[in-house]
Design a protein that fits this description.
heterodimer; A: mainly alpha; B: 464 residues; Rossmann fold; Alpha-Beta Plaits; 6-stranded parallel sheet; 32% helix
């Protein structure tokens, strides 16, 4: 592993993050709020540090990037971006001096988790709130994917970076060059974002709120600019628009691309899409029927709130329009299950991803068949194509690590005095990049009550979830750093 | 510009069938030059290996299947390279490609003589193959060049043979330590220009102030008639080649021997297989066919290997070739040429003292690249492994290099213009030379700079 080269690339990524602070700065200047100075100084610090890294570690050789270097760069790049993203909160003193809270909020943004430690969101300067949403948007499609699209020198070995960041077991390459694929994905992402913003503006939402909610939706993040999240508007129109776009964001973006290129059937033929859509539809139906006449008098009202909440949790966005802790235990259990499953591979959603769950289920079924027909020759297929055995074993490894880390982190939180339900829910909500959980971190609460050490555990969980465990955990393996 | 070329260089899309050694290297080179490359192969391992190192799209499947070709986006591709090990797959792939996209340029690697004899069947009608690449023929050509120019490590011709680019090692002598701008005076020849110096493993593009040293491998461009004088000046003897020993009587060995004997060289051929020897003896007239092993010291001694001017080892087994060459060299042969297949071996081979190596695969890579070039580039060769490339191009009217003295040109760094050919006249340029449209130029460029050079040679960007 070439440390100098890796740090050089990380420096370039930090610079890219610094430049994006211009966007919230514009809003701050427009609204003349207290965000101007913190954003300016954060940008200066970020660019200075990133620039210094680039200058000091100027690459000597341009050998293609190894697999290991790719993972190292992505892991370190995300940590660096998370720290840089915390600067505006620190300089604006949003959390009365707590660096932990600032880092928590920043990483919760970048990893599109949407868990907040802010109690009074509406009191925060608009520029800072915008930065909070921008971190979502950048993290959604990926800082690295963005860097691939805009930094030309990353082309060599860019596949290593791409694989390490893009969610899902086997990332698709849409074009011969990775740079073009990254560019296409961002274009689709921007296109849908613009569409959602227009829909929200048409419904009468203010420009600022429309942009922030769009960023929160398309990235499946969940930060809102209102204390009561989307429930603030109490509007069926906004609920349905956001539900629709959350669903879109939970689908593999390469399918969107194919659809926009005039192959609409590609989406419905895709096995993972059918699984994901089926799950959302069936769960919405069950919850609508169980809550109809219980929490809601009208069927349409029940459908509206159930669909929103199922989509919000199922795509790991984590917006809230209703306190689902008041729903039946069955509804809560279904939502908890959705937290584990998450969105599709190649989407901006978190969780374990539908594709992995499908492959695991098929594998389990195949083992059963093998008991009945011991001599059967069978391949594990998905959408008519054989899934290579090493992909399947990779998914098993991922599953085991996911569960192991989930259990260990929950125990640690419980050891810090958080009640059992809340610790389990907080960990799954963070590792799955969802946001709200149950108990003290439920939809009407936030993460402010979690003890200091607990917050760091959850920060780690969010990063694990977004980079799909391997890329982060590998940094902790001594073997990785050896020559 | 050829018809298949797109308007912008980074839009050039190439589909390669076969991720073997040739496919891998061509893909790597083209992807480095920022072209869009899609590779088809039916072995997932080869594809995974390729995708790990090179920025290309990979598709698993048979290259001869139209469905797979369609999936690879053959419809909007510009060039198809069919370079699998099977001639038949390559031909079928070209056939379907011709149906799906008749416009595109098709290159196929075809080794079987039975096919290549019917050139018209391949290049017209159904198949419309733009170029047939036969690595064996290419390799024989390069061996032939090395034999004809004694002492040359590398030898290429440009402008239909008018100009030669030769890589020659400088021996200790009067020229060692001379600064570059004094070299012409010392040799006494005007029309020679030094393009690159390889010192150790490093390739330098030299300036007038740099000095050449003994042991350097020097690439220079000159005209045919000046070559002997330059060779003398660099300390190489005048002795001409008469005796050649070929080890290995496979396809390459046989064709080579055939060519050599027809040119009047005294040729011997060693082959281990008895039946094959019979066949060779039947096919070859003057060549002495010997049955035995190329690594057999007694046989080599018996056949006076020390009196041989050139020993060529071209068996199918590269380890045997390397051993035979080392043995022949240590027994006193004045020059050895070794066939090495694995490109990974090439640097190693030099380190253990085998100076002249040829690789069928590298030759195939070269001939493919030569065809893929655009911007009026008519020919190109790799030198020093793949570190640099010499290009021959016809300058287009609207290119930005036209009409200005060379010293004022904004020519890419890491590339130099070696030579201009205007009609029959060969011009070794100075800072005040001006390029005219339709001039042929020979440019030596570092591999990384090649896309910029191509850009510079094509039409100026016009904004409207």
């Amino acid at each position: 592993m070439r440390f100098r080269y890796s740090l050089y690339v990380v420096g370039a990524i930090v610079c890219a993050v610094g430049l994006t602070m211009l966007f919230p700065l514009g809003f701050s200047l427009y609204y003349q709020d207290e965000g101007v100075f913190p954003l300016l100084i954060s940008m200066a610090v970020t660019l200075a540090v990133g620039g210094a890294m680039v200058a000091i570690f100027r690459r000597g050789d341009a050998k293609p990037m190894s697999h290991r270097e790719g993972m190292g760069i992505v892991g370190l790049g995300w940590i660096a971006a998370g720290l840089a993203g915390a600067l505006p909160f620190i300089f604006a003193d949003t959390f009365s001096g707590s660096i932990t809270d600032a880092v928590f909020e920043s990483l919760s943004g970048f990893t599109t988790t949407g868990s907040s430690v802010l109690t009074d969101i509406e009191a925060v300067p608009k520029g800072i709130l915008m930065w909070r949403s921008v971190t979502h948007w950048l993290g959604g499609m990926g800082i690295i994917v963005l860097s691939l699209a805009i930094l030309p020198f990353l082309g060599v070995g860019g596949m290593q970076l791409y694989k390490a960041e893009v969610p899902g077991p086997v990332p698709d390459k849409l074009t011969p060059r990775i740079k073009d694929t990254a560019m296409l994905l961002w274009k689709v992402y921007v296109l849908f974002s613009v569409a959602e913003a227009i829909f929200l503006l048409a419904g009468g939402m203010s420009f600022f709120d429309a942009i922030c909610h769009t960023f929160g939706t398309m990235a499946t993040g969940g930060f809102s600019t209102k204390n009561t999240s989307v429930a603030h508007y109490d509007s069926a129109y906004f609920d349905w628009v956001i539900t629709a776009f959350m669903f879109i964001a939970g689908v593999n973006f390469t399918l969107h691309y194919r659809m926009l290129r005039g192959k609409p059937m590609a989406m419905f033929r895709d096995a993972e899409f059918r699984f994901f859509a089926g799950l959302i539809l069936v769960f919405t139906a069950i919850i609508t029927l169980t809550e109809w006449g219980r929490s809601f008098d009208s069927f349409w009202e029940s459908l509206r709130f159930s669909a929103f909440q199922v989509a919000a949790i199922g795509t790991t966005t984590g917006f809230a329009t209703y306190d689902y802790e008041l729903w039946t235990p069955l509804a809560q259990a279904l939502l908890l299950f959705l937290m584990f499953v998450g969105g599709s591979a190649g989407s901006t959603g978190g969780g374990m991803k539908c594709m992995r769950i499908m492959i695991l289920l098929k594998q389990a079924y195949q083992e059963l068949i093998r008991l009945v027909h011991p001599r059967a020759v069978k391949h594990l297929k998905l959408g008519g194509k054989i899934v290579p055995p090493e992909v399947v074993s990779g998914i098993w490894g991922y599953f085991i690590l996911f569960m192991l880390l989930f259990v260990i982190s929950s125990f640690l939180l419980a050891a810090l005095g958080v009640d059992v339900l809340s610790s389990f829910a907080a960990v799954v909500a963070c590792i799955g990049n969802i946001g709200p959980g149950l108990g003290i971190v439920g939809p009407t609460d936030n993460y402010a009550q979690i003890p200091l050490l607990g917050k760091w555990i959850l920060i780690f969980c969010m990063l694990l979830g977004r980079l799909e465990i391997y890329t982060v955990i590998i940094l902790l393996v001594p073997e990785f750093w050896r020559k | 510009m050829r018809p298949f070329a797109p308007d912008k260089i980074d839009k050039l899309k190439i589909v390669i069938i076969g991720a073997g050694e040739v496919g891998f290297h061509v893909a790597q080179r083209l992807a480095q030059e920022n072209k869009q490359v899609v590779v088809i192969d039916n072995k997932p391992e080869s594809l995974r290996h390729l995708a790990e190192y090179v920025d290309v799209q990979t598709i698993q499947g048979s290259g001869s299947s139209p469905r797979v070709l369609d999936e690879a986006g053959i419809a909007d591709a510009h060039i198809l390279l069919a370079v699998t090990d099977s001639d038949e797959i390559n031909i079928i792939a070209c056939f379907f490609a011709n149906v799906l996209n008749p416009e595109m340029l098709k290159l196929a690697r075809i080794r079987n003589e039975e096919y290549t004899l019917y050139q018209d069947a391949l290049s017209k009608d159904f198949l419309n193959i733009g170029m047939v690449i036969n690595p064996e023929v290419e390799v024989i050509k390069s061996i032939d060049r090395l034999v004809t120019v004694p002492g040359a490590v590398d030898f290429n011709e440009f402008a239909d043979g008018q100009i030669k680019m030769v890589g020659l090692r400088l021996k200790d002598g009067p020229l060692a330590g001379t600064k570059l701008f004094d070299v012409r005076e010392k040799i006494g020849i005007e029309n020679v220009i030094i393009g690159a110096i390889v010192r150790g493993e490093k390739l330098l593009i030299p300036h007038g102030q740099d000095a050449i040293e003994a042991g350097d491998l020097i690439y220079f461009v000159c005209q045919d008639e000046d070559l002997p004088a330059i060779r003398r000046a660099m300390g190489h003897s005048d002795k001409t080649v008469r005796d050649v020993l070929v080890i290995g009587g496979g396809n390459i060995g046989m064709r080579l021997a055939n060519q050599l004997e027809s040119r009047g060289y005294r040729t011997k051929l060693i082959e281990s297989d008895a039946k094959r020897c019979e066949y060779l003896a039947e096919k070859l007239d003057k060549t002495i066919v010997l049955r035995g092993n190329g690594t057999d010291q007694d046989l080599l001694k018996e056949e006076n290997v020390d009196a041989m001017d050139v020993v060529v080892s071209v068996t199918g087994n590269e380890e045997t070739n390397i051993l035979s060459s080392l043995l022949a060299k240590s027994m006193g042969a004045s020059k050895t040429i070794t066939r090495v297949n694995k490109t990974a071996y090439l640097p190693l081979v030099r380190a253990i003292g085998i100076e002249h190596s040829v690789s069928p695969r590298l030759s195939a890579v070269n001939s493919v690249l030569r065809y893929v070039r655009r911007g009026g580039v008519v020919s190109s060769v790799s030198i020093k492994g793949e570190q640099a490339e010499a290009l021959e191009a016809i300058v287009q009217e609207k290119s930005k290099v036209v009409g200005k003295p060379l010293k004022d040109l904004d020519f890419p760094k890491g590339a130099i213009i070696l030579c201009l050919i205007r009609g029959q006249e060969v011009i070794i340029p100075t800072g005040f030379s001006v390029i005219e449209p339709q001039d042929r130029v020979i440019i030596l460029s570092r591999a990384k700079i090649v896309p910029k050079v191509e850009e510079a040679l094509t039409v100026k960007l016009e904004y409207f």
